[in-house]
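Bug report (template v2)

What were you trying to do?
Predict the complex of my protein with spermidine.

What happened?
Run completed; filing so the output is reviewed.

Input:
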Amino acid sequence: MKKIVQAFAAIFIVSIILIIWVNRLNASEGYTGENTITVFNWGDYIDMDLIKRFEEETGITVIYETFDSNEAMLTKIQQGGTSYDVAVPSEYAVERLKEEGLLYPLDHEKLPNLVNIDERFLDMPYDPGNQYSVPYFWGTVGIAYNTRILGDRTFESWNDLWAPDLRNQILLIDGAREVMGFGLNSLNYSLNDKNPEHLYEAKEKLKKLWPNIKAIVGDEMKMLLVNEEAPVAVTWSGDVSEAMWENEYIDYAVPKEGSNLWFDTMVIPKTADNIDGAHKFINFMLDAEVAAQNTDYIGYATPNKAAMELLDEEVVNDERFYPPDEITEKLEVYESLGKETLALYSELYLQFKMERK
Ligand code: SPD
């Protein structure tokens, strides 16, 4: 009898462990229940206190996962087997997800806070009528440089990065479109160029930049700039504005050949489990006070006009990070390049990374 009781006890314990393990596995792959949503965002791209506040206000539990590039995010959603309720792709990835039928149309009635977004950022060519996406943060790609170390040296052209005296002085943000993009811009090609010969030419030119490159980095970029680990970096404007709060010597320029104007957005992937919860989360993030707190924490430029009124004037009037239309009109937004060309960008970027001498 004692043995039977022990056997039942063992089976019971093993079952409990299995249930907990399966639940955890499901949660980490975005399988969410009614009172749960899974949010898939870039690393270091939200004030986690806001997640807590959303959970308290709505009773919805948030499972939060991060990615480090649009390509990684796209692959995860394209592969299926996930049910992310909210994701944060950039504009060209929104186009791609749309083309592949992987987005759920937004119900604007459930997003009353959409009125807070500046009209400048609505109805963009990548998503007319904001049928599938709403803007989250926006910015440019440019050159950050440290004036304490470099004096009054300026960076007006992408080609300034190839100067021989910058040996081992440059950090690059780890992004295929960003790096290939400035390689193309430095040759006066479009950063949406599809001509394979131009793409090879850009890769070969980037290869010649290796002696000046100290490292290719991700979310640690801000910290490396603040700590003066390198005096020059090619990165997203938001990383620089945030770093500048902690290191007054950092400055930022968008080179004269042009650069990228980007928009990160919130979308609901087609495989979402909790559409209503996803709308609630997006609407919460569009609230003026919430968006202001998030902007204050992240340091990137907000498209939320109502939030801008709550932010420090000095921050929102800084044209390096909130460039006016006269400047943004000269910049290019990444376009969805089609499967083959996007794969070529990624392949050439990978080759470039492996070519370090
Ligand atoms: N640490 C968060 C970084 C998010 C940057 N998104 C920019 C994408 C530009 N295509």
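What did the reviewer find?
The two ends are 72 Å apart (CA to CA). Strands lie at 36-42, 61-67, 86-87, 133-146, 170-173, 213-217, 232-236, 250-253, 261-267.
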